[in-house]
Specification:
By secondary structure, the chain is of the alpha+beta class. 28% of the residues lie in helices and 36% in strands. Among the domains are: 142 residues, no CATH class; 143 residues, no CATH class. A five-stranded antiparallel beta sheet has the order 1-26-25-24-23, with no helix packed on it. A four-stranded antiparallel beta sheet has the order 2-29-28-27. The longest helix is centred in the N-terminal third of the chain and has 28 residues.
Length: 483
């Protein structure tokens, strides 16, 4: 069994590193040695434990777990980080699977020695079913029987995609049907935001008031300039592409033809987690805010640090400009510990403790006050003192993942747009529009979760954009807005 486990580990590791070159293959295989830990322990146990049922049970369950984990990584990956399971799996198998298998083997051995055919048959069937479920649960958790049942229950409760409430008060305007990236930002040097529909060839710029086509700009870089972490900004009168970071992506500024203007990477070993353009001080010139593993910083248009504030692996999550009633906010999140808030000059405004279940979603602007939007099982708005200003529970089995405040045209009080998603593989999301009194004004069930954007207009109002399979605007109907 130890030989079988070692063959599985080294064989799949060798196949995974076969295209990484000689140096990469050496690294991958050296990492594979760590994965041999459970089978070294199994081999040692086989020398000192005389009960073959105990050793056999430990070995069989370890092999089943190994098969499931490696199938999840190499055959059925559910994300770009699936391979991270291989880092902890040797310790997990050694600490959990080996002892559990040894215990199960001991019990099975006792039953087997009774020589009762029915007991033997039931024990064998239970053992085979358990091993199959272990492999299935690790390789394809979406097909595990309890997951299938839960998914079916949620789908029955939510039903088909549709507008549940508010169709008479809100209308949808389709701006684009084609698959593309969408950006909302001030791009023409005049008050108000523009909307950009971007593909690898270029960007179509629309106005945010009448959604008229304003311009078309071409993108260079041989199709590699734009990705999921890119956005547009206007710097010194020209449009540039900002690589905002994420994972191992670069944080840099590039010209539309692909030429690099500057990059920011204070730690050569680890890319910053974010680089965001914003004009928080309202001087008409964009500045940049970045977070890396040791600090939160502000950069000028040349990529030079204006100020730096030490943090503990904090990620930049939200920015909001200065208003007559509030200083600018720069919000960074230290996961599971706290939210830090600074103004545009780097002066600390607040430290707000949060739990691991609370997901910071952004900043909400309300009359004479501003609040942090927190998601998770409930939507909460808290002030700089950490006290809740608003709280609303979200439907069971849904998790709030996006939220923003909205000054809709024709509506006096700000609205809250909130998007909640069902568990993975269910294929449902739910969009709520909530008014200041906490009443749900609009409720729509969607087949997939869009990205919520808002675009500021010259008149001070904002439009809500749903970016997904195409781009659409959700807005109050004229008659409803007047009421």
């Amino acid at each position: 069994m130890a030989t079988a486990g070692a063959t599985l580990v080294l064989g799949t590791t060798l196949l995974a590193g076969s295209d990484s070159g000689a140096a990469g293959l050496v690294f991958v295989m050296s990492f594979g040695l760590w994965a041999l830990l459970p089978y070294v322990l199994l081999l040692i146990a086989g020398r000192f434990v005389s009960n073959l049922w105990v050793v056999g049970g430990a070995g069989v369950l370890a092999l089943a777990a190994e098969c499931g984990i490696r199938a999840a990584v190499f055959l059925f990956p559910r994300g770009s980080t699936a391979a991270l399971a291989l880092i902890v799996s040797p310790a997990w198998i050694a600490a959990i699977a080996l002892p559990a298998g040894a215990g199960a083997g001991y019990v099975l051995g006792r039953v087997w020695r009774t020589r009762r055919p029915i007991a033997r048959g039931m024990a064998a069937a239970l053992g085979v079913a358990t091993l199959a479920l272990v492999v299935l649960g690790l390789a394809r958790p979406d097909l595990f029987p309890t997951a299938v049942l839960k998914r079916r229950q949620i789908l029955e409760r939510l039903g088909l995609p549709r507008v549940v409430r508010g169709a008479e008060g809100f209308e949808t305007l389709l701006l684009s049907e084609r698959a593309a990236w969408h950006v909302s930002a001030e791009l023409d040097g005049r008050p108000g935001d523009e909307i950009a529909i971007v593909d690898h060839e270029g960007a179509e710029i629309l106005g945010s008031l009448a959604f008229e086509r304003q311009a078309r700009v071409a993108l260079g870089g041989q199709g590699r300039l734009w990705n999921w972490f890119s956005t547009l900004a206007r710097v010194d009168g020209s449009l540039v592409v900002v690589q905002t970071g994420g994972g191992y992506s670069e944080t840099e500024l590039r010209q539309l033809d692909g030429g690099r203007l500057w990059s920011y990477r204070p730690n050569p070993e680890l890319a910053p987690s974010a680089l965001r353009p914003a004009d928080l001080d309202a001087d008409g010139s964009v500045e940049f805010y970045a977070s890396w593993d040791r600090a939160l910083v502000r950069l000028d248009t040349k990529g030079r640090e204006v100020w730096s504030r030490p943090t503990r692996v904090a990620s930049l999550v939200a920015l909001a400009p200065r208003t007559p009633d509030s200083p600018a906010w720069v919000v960074a999140h230290e996961y599971g510990r706290r939210l830090g808030v600074w103004d545009e000059a780097g002066r600390p405004l607040a430290e707000i403790p949060v739990t691991q279940r609370e997901l910071p979603l952004g900043i909400g602007d309300f009359p004479r006050e501003r609040g942090l939007l927190l998601g998770g099982p409930a939507l909460r708005v808290v002030g700089l003192d950490g006290r809740p200003k608003f709280e609303r529970a979200i439907e069971e089995d849904l998790t709030l993942v996006q939220a923003l405040s909205l000054r809709a045209r024709g509506v006096e009080a700000p609205l809250l747009a909130a998007l909640a998603t069902a568990p993975r593989d269910v294929g449902r999301a739910r969009l709520f529009i909530i008014d200041a009194a906490g009443e749900v004004r609009y409720d729509e069930i969607l087949a997939a979760a869009p990205r919520l954007l808002k675009a500021a207009r010259q008149d001070g109002t904002e439009c809500l954009l749903l970016s997904g399979n195409g781009l659409r605007v959700l807005r109050p109907r004229a008659a409803s807005a007047r009421r």
